[in-house]
């Protein structure tokens, strides 16, 4: 088989890239190791920043988002006895939307299916070859057991943190940065109306907690737990008790309404950046190149920003034989990657507690400054609501 761009991974990055390339008349094939049902049922991110929503609108995929999503002006920062609203719209004239990554992926997959996009699901043994040449190719075994080779002009590694693309960048040029945090998130979905109009990020001596949501009838909540936590050691009652304590149930008349938990999982917290994001005819985008702790709601949005930078670069390369944007892609993408990596680290270290009483005082002082100072609040708003693409 031959195509112009072989895309590994049918997550948000891979599906969005195939869509943006198709809009420029560029042919691609997507290769995915999981089943379509599995990909479309994964529960992950929940917040879309301003520029992500604008991009989805621009490509005609904003309709369901605007019908079923919720536009939020900002978030609440909380610590015992205090809760402060950070109003992004007032501070930086930008908002965010609550619309699950699951739904974004469903919208992208439906649009690609309608366009007749070729996607190989449930493949195995994916491998990347000859990326140092102008004739790279991907090989894999398809769901019927056939060995397939796809020759392409370009390979896009959109295969997340466990795919083969990362390792296809040779050690001699690859540089990585990694930080593993000493805590994880226990995330739950609950069939109960949210007890808040906008997200609450809460610092508490017992540990961080967050109240998010997926709709008017489904809440999404998180608890800081130790690394290696077995989710089965957290009963529903224990989860709701911890959420009530940490989110301030009963403080200033606010109450947390519990409900039936329909999903719970433990998510490790890690920062990871790999450079360069381009080697020869291989280009990395999304989690294949970087991972952020979810405290800054950046993972999905950063994947979108990478692809929004990569698509015009590949279009110029393949349609005008102009490699200038392809040559600068890695540096262009990494400016935002490092900004989002710093912001995600900053939110994570400000809100997650340790046993160190000195750290606790620093965290509380930082929270009081961010909530009480227009400069501090604007800094958070600008980063959370999202910097313009190309920043
Ligand atoms: P993805 O991981 O979404 O997609 C990569 C795709 O490549 C996958 O479908 C995978 O099956 C496929 N693949 C892997 N190896 C392959 C191979 N060998 N051959 C073919 N295909 C292969 N971000 C937030 O902002 N907020 C959150 O709350 C949040 N929660 C998360 C929870 C979890 C459990 C995880 C893992 C991530 C979470 N993230 C969150 C981050 C997440 O949203 C990512 O940033 C986002 O999925 C990035 O999209 P992609 O780069 O497309 O990677
Ligand atoms: C979510 O709703 O899943 C969510 C929201 C904000 C975050 C992380 C996750 O920072």
In short:
The protein is of the alpha+beta class.
List the keywords:
391 residues; alpha+beta; eight-stranded mixed β-sheet; six-stranded mixed β-sheet; 27% strand; binds arabino-flavin-adenine dinucleotide; binds P-hydroxybenzoic acid
Tell me which CATH architecture of the domain at 2-47 and 100-178 and 270-352 applies here: 3-Layer(bba) Sandwich
Annotation field: number of helices? 12
The kinds of small molecule bound in this structure are: arabino-flavin-adenine dinucleotide, P-hydroxybenzoic acid
Radius of gyration: 21 Å
| Total DSSP E strands | 20
Termini gap: 37 Å
Oligomeric state of the chains present here: single chain
Largest sheet, strands/sense/barrel? 8 strands, mixed
Strand order of the largest sheet: 6-5-14-15-16-13-17-20
The CATH first-level class of the domain at 2-47 and 100-178 and 270-352 comes to Alpha Beta
Notes on the protein architecture:
With 391 residues, this protein is α+β, with helices and mostly antiparallel strands. Helix content is 37%, strand content 27%. The chain has a domain at 2-47 and 100-178 and 270-352: 3-Layer(bba) Sandwich (FAD/NAD(P)-binding domain). The strands form four sheets. It has an eight-stranded mixed sheet. Strands 8-2-1-12-19-18 form a six-stranded mixed sheet. A three-stranded antiparallel sheet has the order 3-7-4. Helix 1 (12-23) packs parallel to helix 6, helix 9 (299-320) packs antiparallel against helix 10 (324-351) and helix 11 packs across helix 12. The radius of gyration is 21 Å and the shape is globular. The model has no long low-confidence stretch (mean pLDDT 97). Arabino-flavin-adenine dinucleotide is lined by residues 8-14, 31-34, 39, 44-46, 101, 123, 126, 158-160, 162-164, 267, 286-287, 294, 297-300, 303. Residues 45-47, 199, 212, 220, 294-295, 297 line the site of P-hydroxybenzoic acid (PHB).
